[in-house]
Amino acid sequence: MAVEKAKRDRREYNLKWSSENAERKREYQRKWRMLNKDKIRAWDEKFKAENPTYYRDYRRRKRFDRVKPTRPCPEVCECCGKDNGPKVLCVDHDHDTGAFRGWLCTACNRGIGSLGDDLLGLERARAYLIRAKES
User: What share of the chain has pLDDT > 90, as a percent?
Assistant: First the structure.
């Protein structure tokens, strides 16, 4: 009983101190990170080596919270047909409705997004390429 009370009291004290000294704590942590970059990098590399799919799976889970794929991920990009290698294919979705459209490699996903995510952008790019080829 006494040990539990002591732990509870210590926790309450720590929470109170942290909230009252938030800026001081943040500054200490910032300085510590600056002085221990190599240690942090080593921890990160060790974690990534021990958990190779953690970050990929985390990004996928985050993405799937918004967009639910209606079919499994294929081996190749559904736009260009290229193998994406070790990288995960992107979940493409309609930004207006949030509906799943397909699985794209990073290059196709960025390209379609850069052209405005619509057919008009693609048609303008196509017209530009035709004009450039003719001149």
Answer: 53
